[in-house]
Amino acid sequence: MSKSRRLYVKSYGCQMNAYDSTRMADTMAREGYSETATPDDADLIILNTCHIREKAAEKVYSELGRVRALKQQAAAEGRKVLVAVAGCVAQAEGEEIIRRAPTVDIVVGPQSLHRLPALAARALNGEAVVETEFPPEEKFAHLAPPTVAATRKRGASAFVTVQEGCDKFCTFCVVPYTRGMEVSRPVERIAEEVARLADAGVRDVTLIGQNVNAYHGLGRNGRSYSLADLFARISEIDGIARLRYMTSHPRDMGDDLIAAHRDLDKLMPYLHLPVQSGSDRVLAAMNRGHGREEYFGIIERMRIARPDAAITSDFIVGFPGETDEDFEATMNLVERVRFAMAFSFKYSPRPGTPAAGLADQVPEPVKTERLARLQAMIDRQMQAFNESYVSHRVDVLLEKPGRREGQLSGKSPYMQQVLVQAPAHMIGSIAKVRVTGLGTHTLFGELTAAAEQRAPSPAMHAPGGA
Ligand code: 5AD
Ligand code: SF4
Known about the structure:
Elements (H helix, E strand, L loop, with lengths): L4 E7 L3 H15 L3 E3 L8 E6 L6 H21 L5 E5 H7 L2 H5 L5 E3 L7 H9 L4 E3 L7 H4 L5 H7 L2 E5 L1 E2 L10 H4 L4 E2 L2 H13 L4 E5 L8 E2 L5 E2 L1 H8 L7 E5 L8 H9 L6 E3 L7 H6 L6 H14 L4 E8 L6 H14 L3 E6 L17 H24 L5 E9 L5 E5 L5 E5 L8 E9 L3 E6 L2 H5 L12
Parallel strand pairs: 1-2, 1-3, 3-4, 4-5, 5-6, 7-10, 10-13, 14-15, 15-16, 19-21
Antiparallel strand pairs: 8-9, 11-12, 17-18, 17-20, 18-19, 20-21
Bound molecules: 5'-deoxyadenosine and iron/sulfur cluster.
The site of iron/sulfur cluster (SF4) has 10 residues, from helix 8.
């Protein structure tokens, strides 16, 4: 085997997985593996899987079919390829994966990723390894920190996991079973990682966690820091211009976090706050721990603190027992809140979760019809939100080349993608852009005059108001 080995990671699902994938790549870089963009020439193929919705496991098995062909071809050429399944499907299925797909060498759960180098060494000796225990040590302490070179390649925005796991046990959700109990990383370790990213040119950092606003990490003087405290600390780091977080739970939306949106310039006016349903009855059956009025209350307080805040959410339609009236309550909630964007899903029974065993499952055609209605309303709201920016000026973090010649693609404070004609050397800078038009999911804009760009930041435009 050659010294320089190649690693291909395919990431499914949430940002947490995307982050885990980069950290696995960083960790394997220390073992001499460099990342490749295709599985064809890889010596180690990792599928970092997601189990949260529909048929995730089936998708992984069909991908493994393709991987097996690659592995056989490589073997014919005298090259040994290792195949690893990581993430939540690995956690949920364990040994079953190797039984069904013997091409797999390593099965590793999300809490054991730091053991990958040792597992790979064992697998190279011909052993099939399954590691899905929740080990007591903190994985982050053992994963390699992001290197400057790797970060430069990855660009101006980055994720940092600050909290993992969940003990809320919503009755539809597998996360508490696959990611384990809530754990928060210590403040200074997060600060170090963010400072390192800043050194490598990252400007926009999203703190992530399954329940990120339940964050309660150890801070200076042994004090427990809330997410708002953590933001105050991270705001001190030079070079970082924008801070975001996801995903939050309404139950943990503290007043200090809302106040941080008013007080910290770097904290972006953006809140992803899944509500799942607008019906109190369904919310109770989901074990969400709050009702619709509480949700409205949070949104109202948020809009007082940051009138221009973009609010986004997740919805599940067709939860067991959801009636037409329950669904109308969801439609009504959406109408009242006016979202900037939202994800909506049909309920899918996840094995082992309480809701999967409920008798009154909603028929598929009903779910399909409800989902279409909800998505149509959300699309209209997204369009209206984006329209409210036309002819206005927004600060755009220019991230990468756009599809057209001379075009750059960037992000507004509200997570909208903005396409602008701008020179490539502006990548990584924040430009003042006047929005000139709309695509389906993007804004088009032009750089405003240089003199204007140096002017102090104008007051934010408040689309729609509260
Ligand atoms: N069925 C459908 N959607 C689900 N989600 C989580 N579990 C399920 C499920 N069993 C959705 C929720 C969550 C998002 C990440 O995925 O809306 O917020
Ligand atoms: Fe799943 Fe509920 Fe925890 Fe979110 S809060 S991860 S939906 S159990």
